[in-house]
Amino acid sequence: MADQDTLHRRGLMFILSSPSGAGKTTISRMLLEADDEIRLSVSVTTRPKRPGEIDGVHYHFVDDAAFDRMIEEDDFYEWAPVFGYRYGTPKGHIRAGLKEGQDFLFDIDWQGTQQLYQKDEQDVVRVFILPPSLDELHRRLKDRGTDSKDVIDGRMERARAEISHWDGYDYVVVNDDVQVCFEKVRSILHAERMKRARQTGLIGFVRELMS
Ligand SMILES: Nc1nc2c(ncn2[C@@H]2O[C@H](COP(=O)(O)OP(=O)(O)O)[C@@H](O)[C@H]2O)c(=O)[nH]1
Ligand SMILES: Nc1ncnc2c1ncn2[C@@H]1O[C@H](COP(=O)(O)OP(=O)(O)O)[C@@H](O)[C@H]1O
Fold this sequence. Notes:
Layout: E1 13-17, H1 24-34, E2 38-40, E3 43-45, E4 59-61, H2 64-72, E5 76-82, E6 85-90, H3 94-99, E7 103-107, H4 110-119, E8 124-130, H5 134-144, H6 149-163, E9 171-174, H7 178-193, H8 202-210
Parallel strand pairs: 1-7, 1-8, 2-7, 3-4, 8-9
Antiparallel strand pairs: 3-6, 5-6
The structure holds guanosine-5'-diphosphate and adenosine-5'-diphosphate (ADP).
Subcellular location: Cytoplasm
Family: Belongs to the guanylate kinase family.
GO molecular function: ATP binding; GMP kinase activity
């Protein structure tokens, strides 16, 4: 039976990208905590674990040989090299989940975003997060305390290149005040859920309404 507040709908693939340090991990975590209907698509990576990261929660951490095996076995929706390591989205249960109304959150870069969009345009919502300035981006990377000076310099060098992909996204949000940014991202998610094409329960509901 259709519940009038939440008609049956297809899930969506909610992508958050940004230059490193702009805050996509922070916003992702806030969204996952605030919203029961969205689940993180946990990526596979060859990069080493940072302090505080949990295998299977933040990433599946694997070595090069295991990553190669997953490529051979066609286990990835998409994968890309980033900062000298490889990152990929495992196929897992995403397609089946979408059909049942499960939303998935992706913290992936512009290359992965393009690949997902080419594969499944209708289910993808692309959000790009910008820092208020490059100085502030640098400060955040330093204050995060997870990377050496060389790694931070590398990330800053790549930031301009990453920002140049801003026009491949449906929404662009500046992360100045984190709470304001989070609320904006959350309202995008809420609005996208109500898109007519996603609400597969609408036809039956309207038919009943008119009978
Ligand atoms: N294409 C792709 N990119 C990913 C995936 N997982 C993470 N990334 C991107 O890889 C980049 C590096 O991520 P990470 O090492 O966690 O550092 P961060 O930039 O500080 O978040 C970020 O731009 C992520 O969005 C994935 O599965 N596929
Ligand atoms: N709006 C903000 N104002 C100040 N610091 C922020 C803001 N958003 C995130 N941060 C901090 O900046 C650092 C980088 O954020 P993070 O979410 O790890 O970025 P990303 O995942 O894009 O690399 C973290 O230490 C985080 O706590």
